[in-house]
Amino acid sequence: MSTNKNEYSPQVVSHPGLTLAEKLQELNIDSKEFAIRVNKPEKTIIEVTKGNISITKEMSIKFESALKIPASFWLSRQRLFDEYQVNIKELKRQVN
């Protein structure tokens, strides 16, 4: 007997940095100001918002402090994105 879970599986999962970029734009905060608020180099913030680097546990806590969005939100989004990337690579491997 098999059991099926009803899980949401989106076709595309965006990098959490895109959500961060949208939130900063909504709050009218530029990358330099946010970098100062979270005590990170501006280059790091820019790379996160471009989706080029992952949000770490340390960053998520700093983001929570600055934006009042729980660290767990950022980490969950990062985990989902990372899983999505692995699934995409696996699907491509299976096709080839």
Description:
This protein is an all-alpha fold. It has a single domain (16-95), classed as lambda repressor-like DNA-binding domains (434 Repressor (Amino-terminal Domain)), CATH 1.10.260.40. It is 66% helix and 0% strand. It contains 5 helices and no strands. It has helices spanning 16-26, 31-38, 42-49, 57-67, 71-95. α2 (31-38) crosses α3 and α4 packs across α5. The protein is elongated, with a radius of gyration of 16 Å. The model has no long low-confidence stretch (mean pLDDT 92).
Number of strands: 0
CATH level-3 fold name: 434 Repressor (Amino-terminal Domain)
**Helical percentage:** 55-70%
CATH architecture verdict: Orthogonal Bundle
Radius of gyration: 16 Å
N to C succession of SSEs: HHHHH
What are the defining features of this structure?
434 Repressor (Amino-terminal Domain), 5 helices, mainly alpha, 96 residues
Structure described in brief:
The chain has helices at residues 16-26, 31-38, 42-49, 57-67, 71-95. It has 96 residues and is an all-alpha fold. The longest helix has 25 residues, at 71-95.
